[in-house]
Each structure stands twice: as structure tokens, then as C-alpha cells.
Specification:
The complex is a heterodimer of chains A (354) and B (338). Chain A is of the alpha/beta class and 354 residues long. Chain A is built from ten helices and twelve strands. Chain A has an eight-stranded mixed beta sheet with strand order 6-7-8-3-9-10-12-11, with helices on both faces. In chain A, strands 2-1-4-5 form a four-stranded antiparallel beta sheet, with helices on one face. Chain A is globular. Chain B has 338 residues and is an all-alpha fold. Chain B is globular, with a radius of gyration of 24 Å. The model of chain B has no long low-confidence stretch (mean pLDDT 83). Classes of the chains: A alpha/beta (354), B mainly alpha (338). Chains A and B meet through α2, α3 and α6 of A and α10 and α11 of B.
């Protein structure tokens, strides 16, 4: 663990996903929040599969249920008001939703770890970075404080924090945003064999140069440790950089799932297309300073009907859209879309993939 | 850090000047004449006038004030009118009694208060929470003297479990060493194996501790609850949980340390207030501390004693606040003392 790897340049997305062994399988998950105004159905009939060593990205805008989906896996949804209504989350064959609280606690931080969006607030301000990482070691393994602390320093080295022994004794407020995110990643790695890392918008709060470094670090670590990554983001640039497979979510439902090439080359859902069209790197913006946006706003989840939630913003909308949520359409090679009118999609302005 | 402490200690001077001034005039302007009180009803005007001259009470008020200030600066709080003893000596004898009681009351209030507050916060909106917080509201609203009397009635008079007052069984031949009786009892036990002093000292402490500690306990419990609830919503608590830290550790290590800042503020303030609350408690439980002494001195119009006592208690109060501020920086590394 101590040896410091060279910064391996990021290879083509999709190249390092071994598609054999299933690590995590979510089936028909429904999560609701019971609030004063009513019931919010935050996640609807969602199924996901993550293979070993794979990076799955969950894409969608704020409030679409990405984080709730992630929190369903390690059961960090505040209950109440939240409730996992139905479904199963199988991790290495075990249904996590049926485990005891202590069994879940034992899995968190060892098999399933998580890093968060806000490195500014996600580290405890009153303990040093090293102590916090050491604490994770000590929670899961019989380890003396000193041993755990030196392991923590090793991890800080692994995530390429300069002079890790000194930094381990720093408090979070003494570190920069990028350093803190590295420390968070180190904390998520504090286990003998990490299985799945959930990264909830890990780069959103960082500036662009640091974003690239953190993403490099993540894909680098992923290869080295052979863990799987569930990456939550709303940034299609991050998707292009990191993803093996992509799940696009909208208002709590999955609307399209495909591998990263299919998503960028042949997006089949109007929402996916909208996301790609609003990317500044889209070639159609070469001679234009004005970016396109998807018209309208996300519907209120409290008053959402049975139809397609995207109907009110969709340029391809037809009558049936408001009434029935579309069936899954299998386009082959693992590409699935949930849209009544996917055949009418006009991809002439599609983004060029780099 | 040292610089900061020195600066804070220097700031004590204006504070104390204000206290001394206020105390002096409040007492001087209150009705009653110490000379008359001391000589009794049958003294004639001449005798009274003579004594007033002797005590310096015939001089103009402003001159009396000047003289008093001059003496206080020399750390001379004067002599008690009632006993003729130096005030500083009187305080020296009584202070350990007050501090002993205040410390035990504070330990009781802090430990029980934090446990109740944490429990309430963890089981928010459950019957445990409602009961605890309801109880805390009752505790805060209860007058100390009334609570003290009820405690005596139940535990001393009806159940005959605990003594009604004093610090030590008067039938024991007890020679204080440090004047902190529990500590003395412990020392004697360790030296000679005789445990009755320790036990007696402890028994005498129970009721005054509960009486004195109930209000701070209630306040600490409520503060702890709200502070913990606030911290539980922070991102880093989610981080700790996502890393699989056990729930108890999340609460008592990760949350509590962050929640401690407001709790410590309250503890510091309450500790200061205890010293004034002690006047009532000490009086009812015949506890020979500063509080009871000030109370008796007021009745006797023993001006120097009252003034000296209040100045001493105020100084102590300010010092406790300083300790609290230093504790902040120990707990929260973001608070840098300059």
C-alpha cells in the first residue's frame, strides 16, 4: 500500500470494465419520503446492476433521486421520513435490506464506502484527518491506535497527499478543498478490500483543475484496487471521462441505460439528448456563444402523475406520454430506453465524443 | 495562548472596578445602620454616633468609597464588623465548603444533564424525549429553596435517609485537613482505614447537591438536546456513518465533541450562577460556605463582609468564564486564541 504509483493516464472509458461478475444488483427499488405535504416518491421501480471493477455513473439533475438511490445501498436514508417501500439490494448475493443494523454497520466502510460532494463539510472539524481515517480502521478491525494511525498515513500517501505524516495531524480546516477530497477518498479506502465505492458528486464543489486530478486519482485507484465505482454526477464531461456504463435518471425513474459510447453516440431518450445538447463542448456551439437548455423545470414530485415525468418539457411529446409511463425498450447490447417516441429522436446535433 | 490569558486577566481589572463600585453603593444606599444593629435597641444616640465614627460611617459617602477602593487595591477587604476577623480570612475558611458543594452540584448536573440531553436527542419526539424535556422544564421552573425544603421533608424527615444539614456528623471528632470534607474523609480513610468521615461527608452532600444542581441540570439537558440535534444534521455525521462507525461512537465521539461548545458555555455560566444559588441552598442546609455567610452578613448589616464576599464571588465568576474560553480552543481547533 505504501508504494506510490505513477499517475497512470486515463484510458478509454469502457476499456477496464470486466463485465463478468455481478457485485451489486438493485431490483425494483421504491423509496418514498413521508412529509407534511404528502408522500414524495423519490425513487420509482429502479433496478441497477454493478459489475466487479466497473464504473457505473448515475446522471441526472438535482433532486432526480440519484443520491437517494445511492443511500439506499448503504441505508443512510433518514428513516423517518424516508421509507424503502419495496425491492431488494443484493450485494455479493446478500440482500442488504434484510440485514440487521449491526451487519450493515460492518459493511459500511469496509465493503461499501462513500465519498461526498462537499469536502468542506464532510470531514469532522474537531478531529485531525489522520484520526478520522484511523477511526475507520479501528471500527472494523482489531487494531491499536498507533497502527491505525500509521495505516492512515499510508492511505494519505496513496491518494497522493504530499508529506502525509504531517497532513495526518492537520485539522480539516487547515487543508484545501482538493486535499480534503483526497482525504475523504483515503477514508473510504480504509478497509482491507474495498468492494464498492459510491462517489456522490465528488468533484462538483471543486475547481476545474482539481476536478481533473481527483477523477484521475479515482480511476487510478479503481484499477489498482479492483473496486467498483458508483459515480453520481450531473456533469456529462465527468461521465465521458469516467463511465463504463451510464444510467440516466429523471424525477425518480430510470429513463435510459447504456454503455458510455451508446449514450454519447446514439442517445435515445429526449432527456439524454437534451443533456448532451446543453454541453458547451458540443460542436454546434462552435460559432455561437449561446448555450441551449432544456426548457421548463423539473416537475413537483408530490403532484406527479402516472405518465412520463419528462412529458411537460419534451419536444417529442405525444398524447400517451402524459398518461402512461413507457415500457422498457431493449435496443440490444445492453441499451435500454423508457420512451414512447424514441424512434423520432433527431440526433443531427449530437455531441462529438472525444 | 499565554498572551491571551494575560490579556484576559488584565481585563479583569475594569470588570472588578465596576463590581466594587456597584456593590459599594448598593450596600451603602440600602436602609439600615450597622452601628445601630450592632449595639442593639437600647443603645443611645451618643453611643451610636461614637461607633459610627469608629467605623468611618460618618464621613461623606464618596470619601468612604475612595478609602474602600484604596484598601481593596492593597488586597485588604477590611474586617468584619460582626466578628472583627479579617474578611480574607473569613473567606479562606468558608470558600472550600462552597466550592465543594458547587463542584459536586456541577458534576451531577453535567453528567446527568448530558446523558438526558443525548438520550432525548437520539429518541426525538418519542415518549422518552417528551418526559425528559417536560421534566427539565419543571426543573428549571422550580425555586431552589422550595426544592430544598421538599427534599429535606422527604429524605430527611419522612424517610430518615439523609441528614438535614451541615457538612459532617457533629458527633464525630473531625479535624479538617484541606477543608474539602469528602477529600479529607478520603485522605483519612487511606491513612487510617477509618471510613466514617468519608461516608458522612458524602451523605451530607447528597441533598444540597441535588437541590443546587437541579436547575443547571435542566438547562444543560435542554442545551445538549438542541445542540446534538443540530450537529446530527451535519455532513460529517453522514460521513462517519457511511464509514461504518458504530452508532454509539458516532453520537458520543463525533457528535458530542462538536456539540460541546454551546454546552460548555452554559456549564460555565451555570457554575457562576451556582455561587449565587448557593446562598439559598447553603442557608437551608446550614452549609457553612460563602453563600450562607453573605446571607447572615446582610442581616447583620456587616458591610465589609457583604462587599468582600460579593467581590470574591464575582472574581471567581469572571475566572470561570476565562477557563471556558480556553476550553473552547481545546475542543474546537478552529477557535484560535489571540
Amino acid at each position: 500500500m505504501t508504494e506510490r504509483s505513477e499517475n497512470i493516464p486515463n484510458t478509454e472509458p469502457g476499456a477496464h470494465g470486466s463485465k463478468n461478475e455481478i457485485l451489486l444488483e438493485m431490483e425494483n427499488i421504491n423509496v418514498s419520503f413521508y412529509v407534511q405535504r404528502g408522500v414524495i416518491r423519490a425513487v420509482k421501480n429502479l433496478s441497477l446492476t454493478i459489475h466487479k471493477g466497473e464504473t457505473l455513473t448515475l446522471v441526472g439533475e438535482s433532486g432526480c433521486g440519484k443520491s437517494v438511490t445511492a443511500h439506499t445501498i448503504n441505508q443512510l436514508i433518514p428513516m423517518p421520513p424516508g421509507k424503502i417501500e419495496s425491492g431488494s439490494v443484493k450485494y455479493r448475493g446478500r440482500d442488504l435490506l434484510k440485514l440487521k443494523k449491526s451487519e450493515i454497520e460492518a459493511l459500511r466502510g469496509t465493503q461499501i464506502s462513500m465519498i461526498f460532494q462537499e469536502p468542506m463539510t464532510a470531514l469532522n472539524p474537531v478531529f485531525t484527518v489522520g484520526e478520522q481515517i484511523a477511526d475507520v480502521f479501528m471500527s472494523h478491525q482489531k487494531m491499536k491506535h498507533q497502527e491505525a494511525f500509521s495505516k492512515a498515513i499510508e492511505l494519505l500517501d496513496l491518494v497522493k497527499i504530499p508529506s502525509p505524516a504531517e497532513r495526518a495531524k492537520s485539522y480539516p480546516h487547515q487543508l484545501s478543498g482538493g486535499m480534503r477530497q483526497r482525504a475523504m477518498i483515503a477514508m473510504a479506502l480504509a478497509s482491507p478490500e474495498p468492494g464498492l465505492m459510491i462517489a456522490d458528486e465528488p468533484t462538483t464543489a471543486l475547481d476545474v483543475t482539481i476536478q481533473a486530478q481527483i477523477l484521475d486519482l479515482l480511476s487510478d485507484l479503481k484499477k489498482k484496487i479492483n473496486m467498483s465505482l458508483l459515480l453520481i454526477t450531473h456533469d456529462m464531461g465527468v461521465v465521458a471521462e469516467m463511465a463504463d456504463r451510464v444510467v440516466v435518471m429523471y424525477a425518480g425513474s430510470k429513463v435510459e441505460e447504456a454503455d458510455v459510447y451508446q449514450i454519447f453516440d446514439e442517445p435515445c431518450h429526449p432527456y439524454t439528448l437534451g443533456l448532451l445538447n446543453s454541453l458547451p463542448s458540443n460542436p454546434k456551439y462552435k460559432n455561437s456563444a449561446r448555450l441551449e437548455a432544456i426548457e421548463g423545470t423539473v416537475p413537483d414530485l408530490l403532484t406527479l402523475g402516472d405518465g412520463c415525468p419528462f412529458a411537460n418539457r419534451c419536444t417529442y411529446v405525444s398524447e400517451i406520454c402524459a398518461e402512461v409511463f413507457p415500457q422498457a425498450v431493449d435496443l440490444g447490447k445492453g441499451h435500454t430506453v423508457w420512451c414512447h417516441n424514441y424512434t423520432k429522436i433527431d440526433r443531427s446535433t449530437n455531441v462529438e465524443q472525444d | 495562548m499565554v498572551k491571551y490569558i494575560v490579556k484576559r486577566l488584565l481585563l479583569l481589572i475594569p470588570t472588578l472596578f465596576g463590581v466594587i463600585t456597584l456593590v459599594f453603593f448598593m450596600i451603602a444606599l440600602s436602609p439600615g445602620d450597622p452601628a445601630r444593629v450592632m449595639l442593639g435597641e437600647r443603645a443611645n444616640a451618643e453611643q451610636i454616633e461614637e461607633l459610627r465614627q469608629e467605623l468611618g460611617l460618618d464621613k461623606p459617602l464618596i470619601q468612604q468609597y475612595g478609602l474602600y477602593l484604596k484598601r481593596v487595591v492593597q488586597l485588604d477587604l477590611g474586617k468584619s464588623i460582626a466578628t472583627g476577623q479579617k474578611i480574607t480570612d473569613e473567606i479562606k475558611v468558608r470558600f472550600p465548603a462552597t466550592i465543594e458543594l458547587a463542584i459536586w452540584a456541577m458534576i451531577f448536573a453535567t453528567i446527568v444533564g448530558i446523558i438526558l440531553g443525548v438520550t432525548s436527542a437520539r429518541r426525538r419526539n418519542s415518549w422518552v424525549d417528551y418526559t425528559t424535556m417536560g421534566g427539565a422544564l419543571v426543573g428549571v421552573s422550580m425555586p431552589v429553596f422550595w426544592l430544598a425544603l421538599v427534599l429535606i421533608m422527604i429524605f430527611s424527615v419522612r424517610l430518615d435517609l439523609l441528614p438535614t444539614g451541615g457538612r459532617m456528623n457533629i458527633r464525630y471528632y473531625f479535624e479538617p485537613i484541606t477543608n474539602y470534607y469528602v477529600l479529607d474523609g478520603l485522605i483519612i480513610f487511606l491513612k487510617t482505614g477509618e471510613s466514617k468521615f468519608f461516608i458522612s461527608a458524602f451523605q451530607h452532600l447528597v441533598l444540597p447537591t441535588v437541590a443546587l444542581g437541579t436547575i443547571p441540570l435542566a438547562i444543560i439537558a435542554r442545551t445538549t438536546r438542541s445542540s446534538i440535534l443540530e450537529v446530527l444534521h451535519q455532513d460529517y455525521i453522514k460521513t462517519a456513518r457511511s464509514a461504518g462507525i458504530k452508532e454509539n461512537r458516532v453520537i458520543y465521539r463525533y457528535t458530542l465533541k462538536n456539540a460541546l461548545l454551546p454546552i460548555i458555555t452554559v456549564i460555565g455560566l451555570q457554575f457562576g450562577l451556582l455561587l449565587s444559588g448557593a446562598i439559598l441552598t447553603e442557608t437551608i442546609f446550614a452549609w457553612p460556605g460563602i453563600g450562607k455567610w453573605i446571607y447572615v452578613s446582610i442581616g447583620a448589616r456587616d458591610y465589609p463582609a457583604v462587599q468582600g464576599g460579593i467581590i470574591f464571588v464575582s472574581t471567581f465568576f469572571v475566572l470561570i468564564n476565562l477557563v471556558v474560553d480556553i476550553l473552547y480552543s481545546v475542543i474546537n481547533p478552529k477557535v484560535r486564541l489571540q
